[in-house]
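1st attempt posting a full record on here, be nice pls
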Amino acid sequence: MEEEKLVRNYVLEKEVIKGLPEKVVIWEETLRDGEQTPGVFFTVDEKLKIAKMLDDMGVGIMDVGIPVVSKEEFKAVKAVANEGLKATIIGAARTVRSDIDACVEADVDETSIFVACSDLHLKYKLQMTREKVLDISVESVQYARDHGLKVSFVTEDTVRADLDFVTELYNACTEAGAQRAVLCDTVGVMTPSAMQWWIGEIKKRFKPVQLSVHCHNDLGMAVANTLAAIECGVEIPHTTVNGIGERSGNASFEELVLGLEMLYDYRTGIDLSKIYELSRTVEEISGIPIAINKPIVGYNAFSHESGIHADGVLKKTLTYEPIDCETIGRTRRFIFGKHTGQAAVADKLEKAGITATPEQMTKLVEGIKEMAEHKGKKEQVEFIKIFREREDERRGISDREFWDIAKNTGIEPPK
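the predicted structure (as tokens):
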């Protein structure tokens, strides 16, 4: 509806939308960076299931893992690569020949070769000079190209690196054959305005190359920063389903897609009706519960208790919901509690084919409020305690299991 389009786009000026690239292609990282969430691992069959769902929804690029990590990881990457999916399948590699060889053997379409580039990472992690990083990066890109792989060149901590060195490094790798430059906010320290300035500088300095951004969510701005980059013409945004990933995760697939579709009126090519199903599937397979208040897919995203809100939504959903829940395969819920008003109660009765008098309605609403306010919180406190304990135990192997494995390798555990 034109009315809904107007409301959704009210705050977005046409000049902002003008900067959007002609085609945005989602680069999905759930099977690579998403799996690097502490305590998470996917089996071969689970990777295939998620990959097929993403492909069926219209995702254009998937980084499905680092084949050299383990035998099972290699098997999983190769299985996805040979599944005949429409999406471009990428395997990730360090600037190490054996990593690139593993990508070749896994039959991926492309490789994303990554290396750290900030002085912080060079000094404390890699213990390399800028010159050494430049040399091994160019050599790795050339090696991958010589072995038939298309290359995306990726740098960790790009936004905290010296811009002159970033420019030199990427331009050298572009000349060596990299077709795409992936820029990373590895610890989520950018802001949207800083991202726009920075992308503007990058575009002035880089040789012609397709730009991609990979944003982390440490300060809660991964999606906002990614959208800011897209507004500057960046074509390939990275996402993970439910925003999972290392530490606080990555830019959320569902939030970015719905943001583009609903706020910018931009057609992503993603089948929106399958978003909720995908989200729930990844929740189950990853073991990472979706936050109750998570945008789009959280359990409260289309739930209402406040009488004022429920009344508004029943009259016109757009009053308190920016998107139609049916669009992504969800249904609306009214929660009955302390803040409940007559509108939601009347709606529930009407759907059950029941008519109540005004006096009955008043008593019913009062009864709901009274019961809600006097419910104990013991069960709620116990649930939070169990959840916290479960999270501590879920993260990888236990301390006892660690020392059992160590003992089997001949290492005596501490007394």
